[in-house]
């Protein structure tokens, strides 16, 4: 059975949608398979209202493109996406053989970007606190990784912020909770501040956030050593052929390795999640609860979309929500660490919202373990960290949601925004043969490599 879904141009609230549908001028229409659910129409109208891009209001503005549809994926014009560059980057991101700048020789070749960002944990670490060099062990998705007790604590690479996902990040111009990595956008005119922030270390090269971050992370996380990286590329035919195709004749530099990795990261998107399938016309992809939850998320009572919007449900804004810091580490000043401005202290970049329960650590301090906990935090609207009251956004206040609306919202966030197959972005093996996502002896044992 085919039912017509009307794409309408309306103003107003979800509560008047049904009535409006009958009377308002609907500008265009598409044919869709029917599941006889009025929520589809109501949600459609709500979404059409919520997003204005280039002056147009269209459902399309929430859609994540296919990962090989390179012309539709936002990218840095100085680092155009190609299939071979993405493949090269995918290997390098996951290959522990690249970790050749370790402080201790016994840690050489034991970790990679993927140790802290891997598919099974929604491209987060799978632990409250990520560990690169100096971590041992794995468990099933990173939860059993521990600092090596034989090393001085300072030599263990374990940042004091949650390892954010790389998923859908191609929709943000600047990277890191502080937004320090990358040029242009909100970082315009901040050039003289770059020396104050370690994550701005590669900004002088002039790339956008994804590229700047990848280049910077190769040094920050003790991965790139020029001689060893050249040797790695030369000694494996797969790498040698890909390098020749992508960087014909050019030497192996941290910049080119970073650009390759960034190209891969830009293709890692939750484009097979139920909400995405629904947006593309499969109205049965979401359950009735999920659709009701979407109505809450995109509705006026929650105001979630004031901040979480666009294809990744993120934005390039920074806010203080007073979420708890990681215990035992000095609080990270967030955006204020880059700008030096008081009003930016403890504000953090608005993150994307897909596949967050895969790792099960939310907030910049990994303090929330379940979607219920973080949604309750929003509903109560009471900051856990004290700051002058005018630093908090107006939307952060007690929300007037019923228990049913809260439950539906949680279901939408947990399941409609979960791509069930992120493993497709992880190679089954890497040219060096190292174990994915960690390659220290205990991890190898636990991962049965
Ligand atoms: C020791 C663990 C660790 C390693 C290794 C690591 N990262 Fe991260 N990564 C983190 C943490 C923690 C954050 C969050 C810090 C922040 O946002 O300020 C992060 C943030 C990011 C972000 C920013 C996401 C955003 O929304 O701004 C990207 C992209 C990223 N990492 C990519 C990489 C790449 C590429 C590599 C390898 C070259 C890498 N990471 C290696 C821990 C790690
Ligand atoms: C005023 C802007 C704003 C509004 C409104 C807002 N958020 Fe957020 N959201 C943020 C920021 C900023 C963060 C990161 C805060 C931090 O980690 O300290 C965040 C973090 C999150 C996270 C955790 C993501 C992660 O990777 O740890 C979830 C889940 C979330 N928001 C869901 C929601 C929901 C649901 C609503 C509506 C009830 C909502 N947000 C409303 C700005 C906002």
Describe the structure.
The protein is mainly alpha-helical. It has a domain at 72-269 and 430-446: Cytochrome Bc1 Complex, Chain D, domain 2 (Orthogonal Bundle). The chain has helices spanning 17-23, 38-50, 83-94, 113-116, 209-220, 226-235, 237-247, 254-267, 274-279, 288-297, 336-339, 371-380, 403-416, 441-446, and strands spanning 2-8, 26-33, 135-136, 146-147, 318-319, 348-349. A two-stranded antiparallel sheet has the order 1-2. Strands 3-4 form a two-stranded antiparallel sheet. The chain has a two-stranded antiparallel ribbon with strand order 5-6. The radius of gyration is 22 Å and the shape is globular. One heme C binds at residues 111, 113, 115-117, 130-132, 157, 159, 161, 163-164, 166, 169, 175-178, 213-214, 217-218, 221, 223, 261, 265.
Average pLDDT over all residues: 91
What characterizes the major β-sheet? 2 strands, antiparallel
Q: In angstroms, what separates the terminal alpha carbons?
A: 50 Å
Strand content: 5-15%
Helices, by number, come to 14
Question: In CATH terms, what is the fold-level topology of one domain?
Answer: Cytochrome Bc1 Complex, Chain D, domain 2
Supply Rg.
22 Å
Strand order of the largest sheet: 1-2
Bound molecules: heme C
Taking pLDDT < 50 over at least 5 consecutive residues as the criterion, the unreliable ranges are 1-36
Brief overview:
The chain has 449 residues and is mostly helical. It has helices spanning 17-23, 38-50, 83-94, 113-116, 209-220, 226-235, 237-247, 254-267, 274-279, 288-297, 336-339, 371-380, 403-416, 441-446, and strands at residues 2-8, 26-33, 135-136, 146-147, 318-319, 348-349. α12 crosses α13.
């Amino acid at each position: 059975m085919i039912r017509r879904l009307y794409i309408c141009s309306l103003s107003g609230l979800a509560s008047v949608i049904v009535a409006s549908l009958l009377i308002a001028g609907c500008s265009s229409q598409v044919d869709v398979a029917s599941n006889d659910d009025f929520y589809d129409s109501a949600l459609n109208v709500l979404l059409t209202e919520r997003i204005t891009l280039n002056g147009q209001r269209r459902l399309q503005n929430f859609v994540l493109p296919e990962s090989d549809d390179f012309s539709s994926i936002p990218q840095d014009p100085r680092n155009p996406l190609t299939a071979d560059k993405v493949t090269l980057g995918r290997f390098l991101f996951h290959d522990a053989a690249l970790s050749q700048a370790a402080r201790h020789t016994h840690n050489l070749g034991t970790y990679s970007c993927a140790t802290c960002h891997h598919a099974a944990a929604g491209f987060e670490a799978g632990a409250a606190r990520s560990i690169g060099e100096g971590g041992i062990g794995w468990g099933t998705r990173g939860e059993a990784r521990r600092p090596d007790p034989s090393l001085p604590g300072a030599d263990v690479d374990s940042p004091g912020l949650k390892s954010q996902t790389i998923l859908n990040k191609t929709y943000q111009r600047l990277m890191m909770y502080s937004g320090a990595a990358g040029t242009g956008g909100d970082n315009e005119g901040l050039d003289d501040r770059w020396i104050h922030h370690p994550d701005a270390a590669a900004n002088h090269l002039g790339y956008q956030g994804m590229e700047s971050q990848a280049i910077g992370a190769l040094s920050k996380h003790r991965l790139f050593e020029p001689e060893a990286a050249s040797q790695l590329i030369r000694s494996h035919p797969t790498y040698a052929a890909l390098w020749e195709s992508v960087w014909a004749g050019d030497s192996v530099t941290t910049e080119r390795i970073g650009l390759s990795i960034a190209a891969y990261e830009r293709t890692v998107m939750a484009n097979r999640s139920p909400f995405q399938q629904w947006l593309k016309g499969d109205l049965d992809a979401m359950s009735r609860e999920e659709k009701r939850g979407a109505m809450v998320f995109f509705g006026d009572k929650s105001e979630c979309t004031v901040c979480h919007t666009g294809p990744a449900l993120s934005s390039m804004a920074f806010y203080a929500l007073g979420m708890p810091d990681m215990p035992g580490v000095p609080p990270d000043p967030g955006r204020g660490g880059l700008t030096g401005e008081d009003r930016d202290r403890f504000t953090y970049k608005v993150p994307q919202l897909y596949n967050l329960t895969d790792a099960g650590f939310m907030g910049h301090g990994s303090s929330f373990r379940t979607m219920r906990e973080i949604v309750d935090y929003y509903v109560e609207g009471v900051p856990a960290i004290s700051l002058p009251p005018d630093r908090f956004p107006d939307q952060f206040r007690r929300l007037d949601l019923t228990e049913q609306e809260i439950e539906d919202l949680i279901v939408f966030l947990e399941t409609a925004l979960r791509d069930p197959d992120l493993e497709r972005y992880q190679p089954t093996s890497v040219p060096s043969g190292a174990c994915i996502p960690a390659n220290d002896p205990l991890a190898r044992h636990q991962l049965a490599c």
